[in-house]
Design a protein that fits this description.
It is a single chain. The protein has a two-stranded antiparallel ribbon with strand order 1-2. Helix 2 crosses helix 3. By secondary structure, the chain is mainly α. It is built from 5 helices and 2 strands. The protein has a single domain, classed as Recoverin, domain 1 (Orthogonal Bundle). It is globular.
């Protein structure tokens, strides 16, 4: 039987038409920077996650740019974002196969 985490990742892979291993890689980086392991990133965790992901693509982002992205993402949130929100934003703005 497949665990709930893997089922959710498979669902996201289908929704975004991305390889499961890429969704899993992004989720592992997200989880690594989720310091309290509650399923959300704070600003510091977001900055670290985004930096690690875009650096792997050879992209450098300035601190002011990352902070602007954070403010845009958390307009309706309470200074934290969950994985689904992060994934949607990241895939739409940065992800390249």
């Amino acid at each position: 039987m497949t665990d709930p985490r893997e089922l959710r990742l498979r669902q996201l892979a289908r929704e975004w038409d991305l390889p499961l291993n890429e969704i899993d890689r992004i989720k592992n980086i997200f989880d690594h920077h989720d310091r309290d392991k509650m399923g959300f990133l704070d600003e510091e965790g977001f900055m670290s996650t985004l930096h690690q992901l875009v650096q792997q693509q050879g992209v450098e982002l300035g601190l002011s740019t990352i902070r602007l992205f954070w403010k845009e993402l958390t307009l309706k949130a309470q200074n934290q974002i969950g994985f689904d929100t992060f994934l949607q934003w990241y895939v739409t703005n940065f992800f390249v196969l």
